[in-house]
Write a structure and sequence with these properties.
It is found in: Cytoplasm. It catalyses: beta-D-fructose 6-phosphate + ATP = beta-D-fructose 1,6-bisphosphate + ADP + H(+). This is ATP-dependent 6-phosphofructokinase. The structure is a single chain. The chain is an alpha/beta fold and 537 residues long. Among the domains are: 166-318 and 467-509, Rossmann fold (3-Layer(aba) Sandwich); 321-465, Rossmann fold (3-Layer(aba) Sandwich), CATH 3.40.50. Helices cover 35% and strands 13% of the residues. It has 16 helices and 15 strands. It has helices spanning 4-8, 18-32, 39-46, 53-62, 72-83, 194-208, 235-238, 258-268, 279-294, 321-341, 358-367, 388-399, 432-446, 469-487, 507-511, 522-531; strands spanning 99-100, 134-136, 163-166, 172-173, 181-186, 212-216, 231-232, 272-277, 300-305, 345-351, 372-374, 402-407, 452-456, 493-498, 501-506. Strand 11 (372-374), helix 12 and strand 12 form a beta-alpha-beta unit. The protein starts with a helix and ends in a 6-residue tail after the last helix. The relative contact order is 0.15. The structure holds adenosine-5'-triphosphate (ATP), 6-O-phosphono-beta-D-fructofuranose and magnesium ion. Magnesium ion (MG) is lined by residues 188, 278-280. Magnesium ion (MG) binds next to helix 9.
């Protein structure tokens, strides 16, 4: 189905200025409420077309939204509620029994006995979340589509409350702890905090009374590779794992088809699966959830979004991102010291972030030492009167040294395509860091100004480390909430932080496309204010 946003971005007029790009991105957001879309397509097309209001109107009618109808807002909200409904076991097992929760913090001792005499509970305790509790997804009321970062639904930017489900322990649970076999799997690239999340999932499962907990080694591959044995997990095993980075279970890209994964889950008797990973992993988790439903299996599949790239939609941030930004400071500071101590020193730092520039933007903001920040979401020229190199010359002439921070995915139109993909099918990028370093050297040679260029690529150092305190807390809450969601009978969901509150999202809504830096957002504008860089097109 061609979605509204898709259609908006579907055709082209090459090379937009930063301001034009801003307009387009604002209007993409403008349509976002109605549809999901493939952002890979949008990103490549986003720079290629200016959007008109007439077209928006045309498209909105295509999507059965007529803003002139007096009740369009309630229709939108009903549609939103449907989209953000979180799948529940009772959807396929209407007669599924629920039980009083075994999760009760008033219990004096952890559950170690069998439940032969019934489940322990404390009727006085009121620490549960009501299933009807909701959290506001958007908290700003923009009065105009021209407001910075405006995310509008209709041309008047009408305030429309959008509610999502609050995460946390429920009073009724849909799994008997003694019948649960829970499995945890970590997929994709490494990310600070994976061990913290594994640890909290295990600890919380045990508090519910689950004894059969296993780790699946090396991502989805662990479901199919007969040489990889599942790892029994307990509080004792995970007690100190958060003190080091990486994943106790190991990670991998690629892996078996979904049907094989579900076959393996059936063979092993897994009825709760916790999946830690990024957008690819979540696409897999959702497919596993669908397959389990197709086979009428009473299984809860719950995701915990993991990515240093911060490219998962709708959440304040993903765990590991803060730590990656913090680690990046060392690279930027080294680049600054090298550049500052050299005659006409230029430090270039390349930071990870496959298709989203969040790490580069936030790291530049945090350091205060960056003069030019280049991210994939904002087009730029290297050469020409408004190009990066001309501005670099100006910085050298006025400040004596400069620091350039580039995101891994920036400037891909300027480097040779690799035509390679990794085991999961992700495109392997050309090395823009090396390219810009060479271009800077060439340019200064050509104009006859000496320049001492130092290139730093910290690569995996920003993610192969232990989570910082703030990520540690985030991981703790997300891990616990993942278990609460599974026991509450939800499946095909993921946990997130939304306006500082914790929520459950249906998986498809957070991965319909990778989240990107909005060039019209206040945060990008703040970054520009901080670096002092101009528009490079
Ligand atoms: N559309 C999909 N359907 C099913 N499985 C998928 C899909 N996309 C990716 N996967 C599987 O998910 C796993 C992880 O995917 P991927 O390597 O893209 O990492 P990711 O979860 O996006 O994390 P990262 O942020 O580190 O890239 C792989 O095992 C891959 O096979
Ligand atoms: O571990 P790999 O496959 O080299 O992955 C690198 C990619 O993973 C990430 O760290 C997370 O998606 C990206 O920033 C980076 O592009
Ligand atoms: Mg990914």
């Amino acid at each position: 189905m061609e979605t509204l946003s898709h259609a908006i971005t579907a055709s082209a007029s090459p090379k937009l200025s930063l301001r034009q790009n801003d307009n387009l991105s604002r209007l993409i957001r403008y349509s976002h409420g109605f549809s999901s879309l493939n952002l890979r397509t949008v990103r490549s097309q986003r720079r290629s077309r200016v959007f008109s209001k007439v077209e928006c109107d045309q498209q909105s009618s295509k999507n059965n939204i007529d803003f002139s109808e007096p009740d369009w807002k309630s229709k939108f909200q009903q549609d939103f509620e449907k989209r953000f409904n979180i799948p529940h076991i009772t959807d396929i097992f209407p007669d599924a029994h629920s039980f009083p929760s075994t999760f009760c913090l008033r219990m004096r001792t952890p559950v170690t006995e069998d439940f032969t005499e019934g489940y322990p509970s404390d009727e006085e305790w009121h620490g549960y979340i009501n299933n009807n509790d909701r959290v506001l997804l958007k908290v700003i009321h923009y009065s105009s589509t021209t407001s910075a970062g405006a995310e509008c639904i209709d041309p008047n930017c009408t305030w429309v409350e959008q509610w999502v489900h609050r995460a946390g322990p429920r009073e009724k649970i849909y799994f008997k702890p003694e019948e649960v076999k829970a499995a945890i799997v970590t997929c994709g690239g490494l990310c600070p905090g994976l061990n913290d999340v594994i640890r909290q999932i295990v600890i919380t499962l045990q508090i519910y009374g689950v004894k059969n907990i296993v780790g699946i080694p090396f991502g989805y591959r662990g479901f199919s590779d007969k040489d990889l044995a599942e790892m029994p997990l307990s509080r004792k095993v995970v007690q100190n794992i958060h003190l080091s980075g990486g994943s106790l279970l190991g990670v991998s890209r690629g892996g078996p088809p979904v049907s094989e994964i579900v076959n393996s889950m059936e063979e092993r008797g897994i009825n709760m699966l916790f999946v830690l990973g990024g957008n690819g992993t979540h696409a897999g988790a959702n497919a596993i959830h669908d397959e389990c439903r197709k086979r009428k299996l009473k299984v809860a599949v719950v995701g915990v979004p993991k990515t240093i790239d911060n490219d998962i939609l709708l959440m304040d941030k993903t765990f590991g991102f803060d730590t990656a930004v913090e680690e990046s400071q060392r690279a930027i500071n080294s680049a600054y010291i090298e550049a500052h101590s050299a005659y006409h020193g230029i430090g270039v730092v390349k930071l990870m972030g496959r298709s989203s520039g969040f790490i580069a933007m936030q790291s530049s903001l945090a350091s205060g030492q960056v003069d030019i920040c280049l991210i994939p979401e904002v087009p730029f020229n290297l050469h020409g009167p408004h190009g990066v190199l001309r501005h670099l010359k100006y910085v050298i002439e006025t400040k004596g040294s400069a620091v350039v921070c580039v995101a891994e995915g920036a400037g891909q139109n300027l480097v040779q395509k690799t035509n390679a993909t990794d085991a999961s099918g992700n495109i392997v990028f050309g090395d823009f860091g090396v390219h810009i370093q060479q271009e800077i050297k060439k340019y200064f040679k050509e104009i006859g100004i000496p320049a001492d260029v130092k290139y730093i690529d910290p690569t995996y150092m920003i993610r192969a480390c232990r989570a910082n305190a703030s990520d540690g807390i985030l991981c703790t809450v997300l891990g616990q909430n993942a278990v609460h969601g599974a026991f509450a009978g939800y499946s095909g969901i993921t946990v997130g932080i939304c306006n500082t509150h914790y929520v459950y999202f249906p998986i498809p809504e957070v991965i319909s496309h990778p989240r990107e830096v909005d060039p019209n957002s206040r945060m990008w504008h703040r970054c520009l204010t901080s670096t002092g860089q101009p528009d490079f097109v």
